[in-house]
Write a structure and sequence with these properties.
It is globular, with a radius of gyration of 16 Å. With 149 residues, the chain is an alpha/beta fold. A hairpin with a 5-residue loop joins strand 1 and strand 2 (15-16). The strands form 2 sheets. It has a 5-stranded parallel beta sheet, sandwiched between helices. It has a single domain (26-144), classed as Rossmann fold (3-Layer(aba) Sandwich). It contains 5 helices and 7 strands; from the N terminus they run E-E-E-H-E-H-E-H-E-H-E-H. The longest helix has 16 residues, at 133-148.
Length: 149
């Protein structure tokens, strides 16, 4: 059995790396906590994503139209403007300026009411912190796949 991220021989017997699940995927990560931002960025980059990480809603709204990421991963509990308010603002943007970007609410607010509130605000999915690396990657992969399908 071949393990994930193991080296595989190609048709010529040469060792090659399997393709990374997030290769070529642009992700915008929004979290006011430095450690959380670093963790999420490191996990996603380790599986091939191109990550831009910011600490505030204001930075997100400034970058989103130029960056046009495939996925937005956003904390909910941020000072000033929370993730619920941010995603509502994002959803008012046109599709050509990032308004339809698939979004993940990544938050410590993890009960069923919080999940419903996140989905109602405009997130496609809600993931509780702390999140295992494999789960985070799978969520992003699934959002990209659903967008393409």
């Amino acid at each position: 059995m071949i393990r994930e991220n193991s080296i595989c021989p190609d048709a010529n017997g040469d060792a090659t790396q399997p393709p990374l699940p997030l290769a070529g995927v642009q992700v915008l990560v929004v979290d006011d906590d430095d450690d959380s931002r670093f963790y999420v960025s490191t996990v996603l980059e380790g599986d091939g994503a191109n990550v831009t990480a910011v600490a505030s809603s204001a930075e997100t709204l400034e970058l989103l139209p130029q960056l046009r990421p495939h996925v937005l991963v956003c904390d909910i509990g941020m000072p000033g403007e929370d993730g619920y308010t941010l995603i509502r603002k994002v959803r008012t943007l046109g599709a050509d300026t990032g308004g339809s970007v698939p979004a993940v609410a990544l938050t410590a607010y993890a009960d069923s009411e919080d999940r419903a509130r996140a989905l109602e605000a405009g997130f496609q999915t809600h993931v509780a912190k702390p999140v295992a690396p494999g789960e985070l990657v799978a969520v992003v992969v699934n959002l990209v796949a659903s967008r393409q399908g």
